[in-house]
Amino acid sequence: MQNLIEIKNLEHVYTDTDGNEVKALDGVSLDIARGEFVAVIGANGSGKSTLARHLNALLLPTAGKCIVAGMDTADDDNLWNIRQHVGMVFQNPDNQIVAAVVEEDVAFGPENIGVPPQEIRTRVDNALAAVGMTDYAKHAPHLLSGGQKQRVAIAGVLALEPDCIVLDEPTAMLDPRGRSEIVGTVKKLNREKKITVVYITHYMEEAMQADRIIAMEGGRIKMQGTPKEIFACVEELHAMGLETPLAAQAAYDLRQKGVKLPQGIIDDEELTEELCR
Amino acid sequence: MPLNLQNVTFTYMKGTPFEKTALSDVSLQIEKGEFVAVIGHTGSGKSTLVQHLSGLLHPDKGSVTVDGVNLNAKNAAAKKARNSVGMVFQYPEHQIFAETVYEDIAFGPRNKGLGPDEVDRAVRDAMAFVGLDFDSFAKRSPFRLSGGQMRRVAIAGVIAMEPDYLILDEPSAGLDPRSRDAVFKEVMALYKKRGIAVILVTHNMEEAARYASRLLVISGGQVILDGVPHDIFTNHKDELLAASMDVPPVYKLADCLNAHGLPVERTPELAALEKQILELRRAKHAD
Questions:
Q1: Total structural domains in chain A?
Q2: Average pLDDT per 10 consecutive residues for chain A, totaling 277 residues
Q3: Could you give the ipTM of this predicted complex?
Q4: Lower Cβ count inside 10 Å, N or C end of chain A?
């Protein structure tokens, strides 16, 4: 498979307010294939968001390379092009909505890059349909629920027809239904529209939906693998200040108590099935 | 003595096309010593509710009282009553403003009219509570701390007011699992030591199940469920789902086991569920 993103020995150093140099990323190498769904987990301050912000050149490498769709993010001339390939969605939906009507908000991106009006109409309709918000096209965003607002924010990114969406804790402020709406929407975009997804989260139940999980600690990639591989490492995750999905934790605990269970149990159904054997 | 909401109704942007009734005829009493979790979807009215509890919003109809004193009156007793309710907002670290950690935490107690010695004691106690060492942090700029540390400073600023009723609006949003546990460990210690009431607004069902003694479910500007969390999560799953809420993961696992013929009681503790699973297996092997 072809790589959309290629990161090689990436370092990011910034100077904090005391004048000390802080290494937020310390030699990260990572390839992300086109169409892949990658979740990034890690404690606060582990470098997740710093890594994400390199993917569309909001931050630039201090050392190493970040290549997106064949373009070096460090090259100024690529900036606008890269940002049309990689869109970002942040934690707080209220900070990402600019217009007073949903469809105008979604149209803001394509208008800014000079898409012809007729095509903007098509893009906005498609983007709203993709996130299941067509019925709300004429609504005022501030009257929507958190999950709906966040879906509008995703539609705004989709209207730029990106190859990749980077979501930085998109569900941190949402209620349970809002959270499942967002995870469902992101999965659908990935499966049906083949959009590459980089999804940062503190919720392990969300991370387990990904094809691959990257676990970060101290600015480095500490572990990576499929959800089944990562969540089998219960002790390592605890040492990193992270959790495992409940079923994986239960399987681990029961195994410690002598119950014979195979490795790789991460959801309730799998655990129940094994226990029923 | 209780915090009391009597027939409270509140409408935003009254008389405009954007008019929206956020609370309608809500009555509710919270006693000291209770740990109340408040859940509800975005826009359900839970933020409006806690802003009434803290006297930040005045009801259009009805009244809010602490120990019988109306929070919205303009006298010394009402001011004292408002001071007895402390509110930690969402992302409280955004409200830090002073040059040193000490000054930031001392702001509230000083405004309350405490003398320098009392302020000093309040600041030291509050810092100890949130696990910030006085000698290493008091003189530092709060803006040079990590996110988790800043949140602790902000929480300390509210704790230093020694509230009888402590409102926490999503205190764990954006924190990793370990930091979440740390914040709640401190809140529980404070709750147990001082016998205050804690009112926790959260989107996290697990937190509600694990920490609260009482659960309020808000929907459409009204309290639709009010009871013991375990009872609500066990017997009112359909109402919760209809209100965009959910049951905690450990209840879901119990439901899944039951659905496949493994009879287990629902419980908020994973360890208790695991114990039941082990007993079932033992019984099966004994057959």
A1: 1
A2: 91 83 94 97 91 95 96 94 93 87 95 94 95 93 87 94 95 90 94 96 95 97 97 95 94 94 94 92
A3: 0.85
A4: C
